[in-house]
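User: Please fill in residues for this 333-position structure.
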């Protein structure tokens, strides 16, 4: 089993401290207690590591906050009959509901300190086509992705992600070509130092702050602008079609990366070093900020796309088939 704290493949030993009613599941490696729901239901809800990689202020923490907001506040459960999410421990519940409150009040999360983070653990049930799983969200300060040594020290969680998520805010890069290539290069070096191989990972490049980026789109990219503007959860009801559409958008974003950003070297290096490369584009807030606050209500755009890519790439065809069969048996497919 994967320990959500030290990321080792490990065993959890049930222990009953004297005077306590609760059973603790201690990791044999780091001795941290894992949530009972995580350990007991491990097979039914296997972990999926969602790791945010990106420079400082490129939108990692706000993305996760907007995601928690979307999972809790938008009516996905109305359209997906079996869908629900659940925080697996007190920290995760605090993070999810704390971020929902923050964004609803028009405030934004602080810049994240540079440390090895504890994950926000969320059980996800009933996303169509995707197997049920436990999402482990890892987010640390962008400084950790400036140098491979920092990545190794503070962001070792990237090694356990099946899909690597690279968050890039193009408007915040002086030169997108060299900025993106530097991030990718640092990631690849750090992964090898950690004993991992990018060749075994799928890469998902996420363009953040799309509200700002789309303002720069020439008429050639009108379809991408329309995709953002029309982003609504109703589209997600037919998830199979939705994923086909995500593939088309990814191809267009690849063309954008080459033709507009001229980041050919980035694309070539990504394709040579990863199992697959896909792109998505999101706006976590839907609009700009003013004095560090949200002047209008949050209106996230397409923010489930990277998560769906992450889930899509984390399970093999046979795992997916197995899940469908189970769904069929229970009459939910
Ligand atoms: N216009 C716009 N601005 C955004 C959006 N998302 C984030 N921002 C802005 O970018 C700032 C930084 O976002 P964070 O998510 O904190 O960045 P981060 O990558 O976590 O940064 P570090 O924790 O310092 O590594 C926010 O305070 C917002 O002002 C978005 O969707 N649109
Ligand atoms: Mg942050
Ligand atoms: Zn551990």
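Assistant: Residues filled in for all 333 positions:
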């Amino acid at each position: 089993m994967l320990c959500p704290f030290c990321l080792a493949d490990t065993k959890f030993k049930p222990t009953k401290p004297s005077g306590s009613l609760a059973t603790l599941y201690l990791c044999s490696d780091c001795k941290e207690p894992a949530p009972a729901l995580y350990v007991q239901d491990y097979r039914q809800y296997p972990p999926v590591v969602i790791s945010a990689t990106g420079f400082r202020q490129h939108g990692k923490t706000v993305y996760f906050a907007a995601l928690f907001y979307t999972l809790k506040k938008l009516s996905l459960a109305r359209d997906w009959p079996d869908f629900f999410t659940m925080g697996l421990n007190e920290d995760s519940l605090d993070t999810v509901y704390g971020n929902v409150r923050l964004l609803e009040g028009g405030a934004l999360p602080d810049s994240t300190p540079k440390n090895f983070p504890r994950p926000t653990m969320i059980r996800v049930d009933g996303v169509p086509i995707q197997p049920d799983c436990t999402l482990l969200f890892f987010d640390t300060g962008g400084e950790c992705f400036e140098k491979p040594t920092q990545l190794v020290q503070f962001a070792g969680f990237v090694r356990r992600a099946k899909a690597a998520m690279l968050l890039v805010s193009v408007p915040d890069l002086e030169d997108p070509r060299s900025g993106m290539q530097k991030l990718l290069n640092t990631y690849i070096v750090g992964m090898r130092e950690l004993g991992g191989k990018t060749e075994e990972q799928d890469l998902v490049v996420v363009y953040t702050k799309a509200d700002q980026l789309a303002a720069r789109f020439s008429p050639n990219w009108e379809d991408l602008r329309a995709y953002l503007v029309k982003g609504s959860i109703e589209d997600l009801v037919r998830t199979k079609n939705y994923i086909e559409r995500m593939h088309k958008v990814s191809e267009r974003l690849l063309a954008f990366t080459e033709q507009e950003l001229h980041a050919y070297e980035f694309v070539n290096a990504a394709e040579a070093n990863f199992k697959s490369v896909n792109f998505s584009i999101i706006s976590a807030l839907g609009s700009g900020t003013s004095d560090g606050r949200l002047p209008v209500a949050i209106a996230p755009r397409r923010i489930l796309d990277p998560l769906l890519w992450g889930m899509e790439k984390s399970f093999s065809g046979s795992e997916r088939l197995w899940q469908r069969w189970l769904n069929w048996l229970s009459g939910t497919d």
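For context: Residues 1-34 form one domain.
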